[in-house]
Automatic annotation (TrEMBL), chain A:
This is Stage IV sporulation protein. The chain crosses the membrane at residues 91-111. InterPro entries: YqfD (IPR010690). It comes from the Bacteria. Pfam families: YqfD (PF06898). Keywords: Membrane, Transmembrane, Transmembrane helix.
TrEMBL record, chain B:
This is Sporulation protein YqfC. It comes from the Bacteria. InterPro entries: Spore_YabP/YqfC (IPR022476), Spore_YqfC (IPR022477).
Length: 399, 89
């Protein structure tokens, strides 16, 4: 059916109105002569509308005359007539073609660059560098070679581990992953001591290289040398080595955290004002039923146009709020304070440290503040490598 | 029966009867489409009543807002709300 309709449209047809008394006779005559006529509709006793192809129209006219009917053309439909009409209005055709061409042309440019970075790279910097290399908004898609650009970008930027550029439509999606810098480790050949980074009592010592200065059970202070990289033996030259080893020690921590027992909560009073904003570029038009005279309010924003459009319609609801002081249940405050303190503890203990013993103390100050004190005994590696700055010239370096 | 021999013969060879006996083939699709093949012309056409001539008599179609979709020498297609199809001899 669709194909027939399309064919008729392409060839062009006329909608005719036939008036007369012997309409059935007319139809039979048309039919017998194998003229295709369709969508025949009886309007009333003497009139009928039908569709007939342009070519067959003359024939139909003939049969109408024979049966004493009159034929009127209601309208001309189809491609040939449309083309004929458009021939008189060249401006429209030209404009249409021009707009198609423009849409195509503009879609071959990159208009927007969306940059996402991972590992602390600055988006603005990446954008700047990319634009220096040719990828900026307004550049033709054919002019840039993405593979080459990616490679060059990686070569020129040491701190970048990976870059991915994806052009979708007129938008370029750039993803940049920065390198995670490894911690500065003293090179294995550098002579060093291992010193204590924290006070504590040595629990276990494993010396891999160098000479142990302290032994298990010793109390050490921050900065004390634990394993020395200078080896002095009677009868031998002083040697400088890269001391290595693990020094597990018992350390103690005391962390205090304060928790408010009274807190203010903002409660909605029920009063609200709804404002509508239309944002076009940097211009904003705001419609509000009245001035927002609330002393304190909570704002709720909702974008009414979910997709990205050049303009935005934002609905803002302002709720009036008033403060309400409430007492925090002591148990809740305790739990919260304890959690916070433990988090703090985790931050200061060196990685791998194990909490062996833990004590908590709670005290209320002025009925307003709860102080949570966590005392912890930790087993951790307190050794840290420190370069030896040797002044004497007698030392011999070991390779 | 005058044609009994012919009828029997046709029954025996199991041939489509509409082609051999010049009978109309009336097809009704749902209650909206009606096609009549092998007809003998339109007798009457009104939006609520269509009468089509055929070898077995006049086929009367009663309905509402009926439109002749296409008419050709062999086939007539009618669309609209069809209520009844009768053959009036």
């Amino acid at each position: 059916m669709v194909s027939i309709k399309l064919w008729n449209f392409l060839r062009g047809y006329v909608i005719i109105k036939v008036e007369g008394l012997a309409i059935e006779k007319f139809l039979n005559l048309v039919m017998v002569n194998e003229v295709y006529i369709w969508d025949v509709e009886r309007k009333n006793y003497t009139t009928l509308t039908a569709k007939v192809s342009t070519k067959a129209f003359k024939e139909v006219l003939q049969y109408a005359k024979k049966t004493g009917c009159r034929v009127f053309i209601v309208s001309k439909k189809g491609l040939p007539f449309a083309v004929f009409r458009l021939r008189k209005r060249k401006g429209i055709v030209l404009g249409f073609l021009l707009s198609v061409l423009l849409v195509y042309l503009f879609s071959t440019f990159i208009w927007e660059i969306d940059i996402k970075t991972v590992n602390g790279l600055k988006e603005e910097e990446v954008a700047k560098k990319l634009s220096e290399m040719g990828l900026k908004s307004g550049v033709s898609k054919f002019k840039i070679d993405i593979n080459k650009l990616e490679k060059e970008f990686l070569l020129n930027n040491e701190e970048v581990a990976w870059i991915g550029i994806n052009v979708r439509g007129t938008k370029a999606f750039v993803k940049v992953v920065g390198k995670t810098k490894p911690q500065k480790v003293l090179s294995k050949e550098e002579p060093c001591n291992i010193i204590a980074k924290r006070d504590g009592i040595i629990y276990k010592m494993t010396v891999l290289e160098g000479e142990a200065v302290k032994k298990v059970g010793d109390t050490v202070k921050t900065g004390d040398i634990l394993i020395s990289g200078i080896i002095e033996k009677p009868g031998l030259d002083t040697m400088f080595v890269h001391a290595d080893g693990e020094v597990l020690a018992r350390t103690w921590y005391e962390i205090s955290v304060e928790e408010e027992l009274k807190r203010t909560r903002w409660v909605k009073t029920g009063e609200k004002i709804v404002a509508t904003k239309i944002i076009i570029g940097s211009n904003t038009i705001t419609f509000t039923p009245r001035k927002i005279e609330f002393e304190k309010f909570e704002k709720e924003e909702k974008n009414l146009i979910p997709y990205e459009a050049p303009f935005k319609i934002v609905k803002e609801v302002y709720y009036e709020v008033k403060p309400e002081v409430e007492t925090v249940p002591i148990e809740e405050a305790k739990e919260k304070g304890r959690k916070k303190a433990l988090e703090e503890l985790e931050k200061v203990v060196s990685p791998g440290g194990k909490v062996v013993n833990k004590k908590e103390k709670y005290e209320v100050i002025d009925g307003r503040i709860l102080r949570v004190t966590v005392m912890a005994e930790v087993l951790e590696d307190i050794g840290v490598k420190e370069k030896i700055s040797y002044t004497g010239g007698e030392g011999k370096k070991i390779d | 029966m005058k044609q009994s021999l012919k009828d029997e013969l046709i029954n025996a060879i199991d041939f489509p009867k509409d082609a051999l006996l010049n009978l109309p083939k009336i097809t009704l699709i749902g209650k909206t489409h009606l096609t009549v093949e092998n007809h003998r012309g339109i007798v009457e056409y009104l939006p609520e009543r269509v009468r089509i001539n055929s070898t077995v008599g006049i086929i009367r179609v009663i309905g509402e807002n009926m439109v002749i979709n296409s008419i050709m020498t062999e086939v007539i297609t009618i669309t609209g709300e069809i209520k009844s199809v009768e053959i009036v001899v």
